Structures are given as structure tokens and as C-alpha cells.
């Protein structure tokens, strides 16, 4: 059975105002290396990553270790935001409450949800018989899983997405097989 592994990038180092440029922190590099040692990679045929450094750097150790092709895909990026946002949790709560509106300059949640949904549907359609891994970002992955659940996610669900965490989706039914787990819980 082909599956879709959704993986949140490992911890990043907050350098500068543009989150889309942040690399992994030392802890994030350790998380990425631990993630790369997990057995689930044996079945993965392709890895797709957000073009942001923190996502690519999370994907690279697994791609090298297991010899899996890695491709960056722009539509896997995080919500567009112009710069760091103060009171980020409150902004995200407002974004979930009013998904059609840009809050504090962020891409509207409804727009980001459509983008990530189209992106993942397209990747799976192009590789329907293959198990894929996608390395992206907590917020857009939370929005995607909310879409699978036919509702807007909550702030608590977004906050529960672990760094270098894994969720699994059945690509035939588009059902969540396994909700988020931490590296230490991944088999």
C-alpha cells in the first residue's frame, strides 16, 4: 500500500527576520540525523521538500543515507509572511478563525490550504503507486490535515506538531493513518 509520509522540518536557527531563510540549529541537525535513521525510509521512493533551508536540511540526511531522490517543490513552502510576527500564536489563532483574511501580512489560511492540498494531490497523482515523503512546515501541514478532517484546525493541533515529526496518510483513501509522532516514537 502506497503511503504519504508528512514530515515537519527539524528545529531551525532563528537568524534574521525572514523565517524562509532559516537553517537548522545544532539540535535540528541532530533531529534530522535521527530522523534519517528511522526504518520507515526503506519504503520511500521519492522525497519532496519545501525549498526553505530548514526543510531541505531535514531531508538531506535521509536522502543520502537511503539513496532516495530528493526534489524541492515551491508549493510545499510555509505560509508566506513578510517578516517576523509578534504574538505569533495569537496571529495564528486569528488566521484559523478568519481563514479568508490575511492577518499581519500572512498568506490567508484558506489560500495556503488550497495551495498545499493541490500540491500534495498533484505529487501523489504523478507518483500514485509510490510511497512518498514530504518535508514541509508545521502550519501548512496542519492546514492540510485539517482539510482531510473537513474542518479548520485548532491552535492546539498546530502546536502539537513536533519538529522532525511524522504523520502518515493513505494515498488511496486520503485518510490519516497515523497522527503526528516524535522521532523517538517512529518505527
Model description:
- With 187 residues, this protein is of the alpha/beta class.
- It has one domain (3-81, 112-185): Phosphoglycerate mutase-like (Rossmann fold).
- Helix content is 37%, strand content 16%.
- It contains six helices and six strands.
- A six-stranded mixed sheet has the order 3-2-4-1-5-6, sandwiched between helices.
- Strand 2, helix 2 and strand 3 form a beta-alpha-beta unit.
- The two termini are 17 Å apart.
- The model has no long low-confidence stretch (mean pLDDT 91).
As residue ranges, the low-confidence spans are none
What is the residue-averaged pLDDT? 91
Overall outline: globular
Instruction: Quickly count the helices.
Output: 6
- Helix share of residues? 25-40%
**What is the name of the CATH topology?**
Rossmann fold
CATH superfamily: Phosphoglycerate mutase-like
Known CATH architecture: 3-Layer(aba) Sandwich
The CATH C-level name is Alpha Beta
As a percent range, the share of strand residues is 15-25%
From the alpha carbons, calculate the radius of gyration and give it in angstroms.
Answer: 15 Å
Q: N- to C-terminal separation?
A: 17 Å
Derived structural class: alpha/beta
The run of helices and strands is EHEHEHHEHHEE
Amino acid at each position: 500500500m502506497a503511503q504519504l509520509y508528512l514530515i515537519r522540518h527539524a528545529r531551525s536557527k532563528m537568524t534574521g527576520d525572514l523565517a524562509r531563510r532559516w537553517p537548522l540549529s545544532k539540535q535540528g541537525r541532530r533531529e534530522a540525523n535521527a530522523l534519517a535513521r528511522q526504518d520507515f525510509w526503506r519504503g520511500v521512493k521519492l522525497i519532496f521538500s519545501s525549498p526553505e533551508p530548514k526543510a531541505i536540511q531535514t531531508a538531506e540526511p535521509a536522502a543520502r543515507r537511503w539513496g532516495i531522490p530528493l526534489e524541492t517543490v515551491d508549493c510545499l513552502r510555509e505560509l508566506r509572511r513578510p517578516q517576523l510576527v509578534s504574538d505569533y500564536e495569537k496571529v495564528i489563532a486569528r488566521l484559523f478563525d478568519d481563514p479568508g483574511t490575511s492577518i499581519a501580512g500572512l498568506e490567508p489560511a484558506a489560500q495556503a490550504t488550497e495551495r498545499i492540498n493541490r500540491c500534495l494531490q498533484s505529487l501523489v497523482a504523478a507518483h500514485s503507486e509510490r510511497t512518498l515523503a514530504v518535508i514541509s512546515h508545521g502550519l501548512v501541514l496542519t492546514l492540510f490535515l485539517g482539510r482531510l478532517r473537513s474542518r479548520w484546525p485548532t491552535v492546539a493541533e498546530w502546536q502539537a506538531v513536533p519538529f522532525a515529526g511524522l504523520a502518515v496518510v493513505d494515498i488511496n483513501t486520503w485518510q490519516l493513518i497515523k497522527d503526528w509522532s516524535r522521532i523517538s516514537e517512529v518505527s
